[in-house]
Specification:
Number of domains: 1
Helix content: 10-25%
Strand content: 25-35%
Shape: globular
Length: 223
Protein backbone atom coordinates (compact mmCIF):
# COMPACT_ATOMS: atom_id res chain seq x y z
CA UNK A 1 0.00 0.00 0.00
CA UNK A 2 2.97 2.38 0.38
CA UNK A 3 3.18 2.73 -3.39
CA UNK A 4 -0.25 4.41 -3.31
CA UNK A 5 0.69 7.23 -0.93
CA UNK A 6 1.51 9.68 -3.74
CA UNK A 7 -1.92 9.33 -5.35
CA UNK A 8 -4.86 11.61 -4.56
CA UNK A 9 -6.93 10.40 -1.62
CA UNK A 10 -10.08 9.44 -3.60
CA UNK A 11 -8.03 7.42 -6.08
CA UNK A 12 -6.07 5.79 -3.27
CA UNK A 13 -9.23 4.71 -1.47
CA UNK A 14 -10.76 3.24 -4.63
CA UNK A 15 -7.60 1.24 -5.34
CA UNK A 16 -7.47 -0.03 -1.76
CA UNK A 17 -11.06 -1.24 -2.02
CA UNK A 18 -10.31 -3.02 -5.29
CA UNK A 19 -7.22 -4.70 -3.81
CA UNK A 20 -9.12 -5.82 -0.70
CA UNK A 21 -12.02 -7.07 -2.83
CA UNK A 22 -9.67 -9.15 -4.98
CA UNK A 23 -7.71 -10.55 -2.01
CA UNK A 24 -10.74 -11.54 0.04
CA UNK A 25 -13.27 -12.59 -2.60
CA UNK A 26 -11.94 -13.14 -6.12
CA UNK A 27 -8.54 -14.66 -5.30
CA UNK A 28 -9.94 -17.47 -3.10
CA UNK A 29 -12.46 -18.37 -5.81
CA UNK A 30 -9.74 -18.51 -8.43
CA UNK A 31 -7.66 -20.70 -6.12
CA UNK A 32 -10.70 -22.95 -5.60
CA UNK A 33 -11.08 -23.47 -9.35
CA UNK A 34 -7.41 -24.32 -9.59
CA UNK A 35 -7.79 -26.93 -6.82
CA UNK A 36 -10.74 -28.50 -8.62
CA UNK A 37 -8.62 -28.88 -11.74
CA UNK A 38 -5.71 -30.30 -9.75
CA UNK A 39 -7.71 -33.02 -7.95
CA UNK A 40 -9.10 -34.19 -11.30
CA UNK A 41 -5.60 -34.18 -12.77
CA UNK A 42 -4.19 -36.19 -9.85
CA UNK A 43 -7.00 -38.78 -10.01
CA UNK A 44 -7.51 -39.59 -13.70
CA UNK A 45 -9.18 -42.94 -12.90
CA UNK A 46 -11.90 -41.32 -10.77
CA UNK A 47 -15.14 -39.57 -11.73
CA UNK A 48 -15.02 -36.25 -9.84
CA UNK A 49 -17.72 -33.59 -10.20
CA UNK A 50 -18.41 -30.32 -8.38
CA UNK A 51 -21.65 -28.36 -8.51
CA UNK A 52 -21.91 -24.65 -9.21
CA UNK A 53 -20.51 -22.30 -6.59
CA UNK A 54 -18.49 -24.86 -4.62
CA UNK A 55 -15.52 -23.51 -2.67
CA UNK A 56 -12.44 -25.68 -2.07
CA UNK A 57 -10.17 -24.30 0.62
CA UNK A 58 -6.42 -24.77 1.12
CA UNK A 59 -5.35 -28.37 1.58
CA UNK A 60 -8.38 -29.88 -0.18
CA UNK A 61 -7.46 -33.31 -1.50
CA UNK A 62 -9.02 -36.45 -2.96
CA UNK A 63 -7.05 -39.70 -3.00
CA UNK A 64 -8.54 -42.11 -5.53
CA UNK A 65 -5.65 -43.83 -7.35
CA UNK A 66 -7.81 -46.84 -8.32
CA UNK A 67 -10.89 -44.86 -9.32
CA UNK A 68 -14.26 -44.28 -7.71
CA UNK A 69 -16.91 -41.58 -7.82
CA UNK A 70 -16.91 -38.28 -5.93
CA UNK A 71 -19.89 -36.01 -6.60
CA UNK A 72 -20.75 -32.78 -4.88
CA UNK A 73 -23.85 -30.59 -5.23
CA UNK A 74 -24.09 -26.83 -5.57
CA UNK A 75 -22.69 -24.24 -3.17
CA UNK A 76 -20.77 -26.55 -0.85
CA UNK A 77 -17.98 -25.09 1.26
CA UNK A 78 -14.85 -27.07 2.06
CA UNK A 79 -12.64 -25.06 4.36
CA UNK A 80 -9.03 -25.85 5.17
CA UNK A 81 -7.73 -29.43 5.16
CA UNK A 82 -10.62 -31.49 3.74
CA UNK A 83 -9.61 -34.97 2.52
CA UNK A 84 -11.59 -37.76 0.85
CA UNK A 85 -10.19 -41.24 0.19
CA UNK A 86 -11.89 -43.62 -2.25
CA UNK A 87 -11.02 -47.32 -2.23
CA UNK A 88 -11.66 -48.30 -5.84
CA UNK A 89 -13.85 -48.28 -8.96
CA UNK A 90 -17.05 -49.32 -7.15
CA UNK A 91 -16.66 -46.73 -4.40
CA UNK A 92 -19.20 -43.88 -4.36
CA UNK A 93 -19.12 -40.73 -2.22
CA UNK A 94 -22.08 -38.40 -2.83
CA UNK A 95 -22.43 -34.99 -1.16
CA UNK A 96 -25.59 -32.92 -1.56
CA UNK A 97 -25.96 -29.17 -1.98
CA UNK A 98 -25.20 -26.48 0.58
CA UNK A 99 -22.99 -28.64 2.82
CA UNK A 100 -20.24 -27.10 4.97
CA UNK A 101 -17.06 -28.88 6.05
CA UNK A 102 -15.11 -26.71 8.45
CA UNK A 103 -11.48 -27.59 9.22
CA UNK A 104 -9.65 -30.90 8.67
CA UNK A 105 -12.57 -33.17 7.82
CA UNK A 106 -11.69 -36.70 6.68
CA UNK A 107 -13.97 -39.08 4.74
CA UNK A 108 -12.76 -42.62 4.02
CA UNK A 109 -15.13 -44.40 1.64
CA UNK A 110 -14.72 -48.11 0.94
CA UNK A 111 -18.16 -48.73 -0.58
CA UNK A 112 -20.87 -46.07 -0.25
CA UNK A 113 -21.32 -42.84 1.69
CA UNK A 114 -24.25 -40.56 0.83
CA UNK A 115 -24.56 -37.12 2.45
CA UNK A 116 -27.73 -35.06 2.03
CA UNK A 117 -28.27 -31.33 1.61
CA UNK A 118 -27.19 -28.61 4.07
CA UNK A 119 -25.20 -30.99 6.29
CA UNK A 120 -22.71 -29.34 8.63
CA UNK A 121 -19.45 -30.93 9.78
CA UNK A 122 -17.42 -29.49 12.66
CA UNK A 123 -13.64 -29.37 12.74
CA UNK A 124 -11.59 -32.56 12.78
CA UNK A 125 -14.57 -34.80 11.95
CA UNK A 126 -14.10 -38.26 10.46
CA UNK A 127 -16.62 -40.32 8.49
CA UNK A 128 -15.87 -43.93 7.48
CA UNK A 129 -17.99 -46.80 6.16
CA UNK A 130 -15.72 -49.67 7.24
CA UNK A 131 -14.23 -51.14 10.41
CA UNK A 132 -10.99 -53.08 10.67
CA UNK A 133 -11.36 -56.75 11.48
CA UNK A 134 -9.05 -57.71 14.34
CA UNK A 135 -10.23 -60.95 15.99
CA UNK A 136 -8.22 -63.45 13.92
CA UNK A 137 -5.23 -64.25 16.12
CA UNK A 138 -3.31 -65.81 13.22
CA UNK A 139 -3.05 -62.58 11.20
CA UNK A 140 -1.90 -59.01 11.80
CA UNK A 141 -4.81 -56.59 12.03
CA UNK A 142 -4.02 -54.92 8.70
CA UNK A 143 -4.23 -58.29 6.90
CA UNK A 144 -7.74 -59.11 8.12
CA UNK A 145 -9.76 -56.82 5.90
CA UNK A 146 -12.79 -54.71 6.74
CA UNK A 147 -16.47 -54.95 7.56
CA UNK A 148 -18.36 -52.38 5.46
CA UNK A 149 -21.77 -50.78 5.94
CA UNK A 150 -23.40 -48.10 3.74
CA UNK A 151 -23.52 -44.70 5.45
CA UNK A 152 -26.35 -42.25 4.86
CA UNK A 153 -26.30 -38.82 6.50
CA UNK A 154 -29.67 -37.20 5.86
CA UNK A 155 -30.57 -33.56 5.13
CA UNK A 156 -29.82 -30.82 7.67
CA UNK A 157 -27.73 -32.97 10.01
CA UNK A 158 -25.20 -31.16 12.23
CA UNK A 159 -22.12 -32.91 13.56
CA UNK A 160 -19.93 -30.77 15.78
CA UNK A 161 -16.25 -30.77 16.73
CA UNK A 162 -14.18 -33.96 16.60
CA UNK A 163 -16.98 -36.41 15.81
CA UNK A 164 -16.29 -39.89 14.42
CA UNK A 165 -19.12 -41.23 12.26
CA UNK A 166 -19.33 -44.92 11.36
CA UNK A 167 -23.14 -45.26 11.16
CA UNK A 168 -26.04 -43.43 9.51
CA UNK A 169 -27.67 -40.27 10.90
CA UNK A 170 -31.30 -39.25 10.38
CA UNK A 171 -32.76 -35.95 9.23
CA UNK A 172 -31.90 -32.84 11.28
CA UNK A 173 -30.17 -34.85 14.01
CA UNK A 174 -27.60 -32.98 16.09
CA UNK A 175 -24.45 -34.79 17.23
CA UNK A 176 -22.51 -33.29 20.12
CA UNK A 177 -18.77 -32.66 20.22
CA UNK A 178 -16.35 -35.60 20.57
CA UNK A 179 -19.10 -38.15 19.91
CA UNK A 180 -18.52 -41.52 18.25
CA UNK A 181 -21.53 -42.59 16.17
CA UNK A 182 -21.44 -46.40 16.11
CA UNK A 183 -25.21 -47.03 15.79
CA UNK A 184 -27.76 -45.30 13.55
CA UNK A 185 -29.04 -42.01 14.99
CA UNK A 186 -32.79 -41.35 14.50
CA UNK A 187 -34.10 -38.14 12.89
CA UNK A 188 -34.77 -35.02 15.00
CA UNK A 189 -32.67 -36.19 17.94
CA UNK A 190 -29.67 -34.98 19.92
CA UNK A 191 -26.97 -37.60 20.38
CA UNK A 192 -23.82 -37.34 22.49
CA UNK A 193 -21.08 -39.55 23.88
CA UNK A 194 -18.78 -42.40 22.93
CA UNK A 195 -20.61 -44.39 21.78
CA UNK A 196 -23.22 -41.76 20.94
CA UNK A 197 -26.66 -42.17 22.50
CA UNK A 198 -29.87 -40.19 22.08
CA UNK A 199 -30.58 -37.76 24.93
CA UNK A 200 -33.27 -35.56 23.39
CA UNK A 201 -35.95 -35.49 20.71
CA UNK A 202 -37.21 -32.26 19.11
CA UNK A 203 -39.17 -33.47 16.09
CA UNK A 204 -42.87 -33.58 15.28
CA UNK A 205 -45.21 -35.76 17.36
CA UNK A 206 -45.48 -39.26 16.02
CA UNK A 207 -41.90 -39.52 14.77
CA UNK A 208 -40.25 -40.31 18.11
CA UNK A 209 -37.59 -43.05 18.19
CA UNK A 210 -38.65 -46.51 19.32
CA UNK A 211 -39.01 -46.62 23.09
CA UNK A 212 -39.25 -42.85 23.44
CA UNK A 213 -42.01 -41.55 25.71
CA UNK A 214 -43.00 -37.90 25.41
CA UNK A 215 -43.70 -36.24 28.76
CA UNK A 216 -45.72 -33.05 29.17
CA UNK A 217 -43.61 -29.91 29.02
CA UNK A 218 -40.46 -31.66 27.80
CA UNK A 219 -39.10 -33.55 24.84
CA UNK A 220 -39.49 -36.85 26.65
CA UNK A 221 -37.16 -39.68 27.48
CA UNK A 222 -36.27 -43.20 26.46
CA UNK A 223 -37.68 -46.04 28.54
Amino acid sequence: MRALRFLPEPVRQRLKLQIVSFAHFRAPRLASRFRQAMVRLRNPQADITFGAGCYLGPGFSIDAPWGGTFSCGNHCEFRRGFRAELAGPGTRLEIGSGCVFTYYSLIQCGRSIVIGDRVMFGQSSMTVDGNHRFRDLTKPMLDQGYDFRPIHIADDVTTTTKCTIIASIGERAFVGANSVVTQDIPPFTVAVGAPARVIDYFGPPGSEPDGWVRSEGSAGQRV
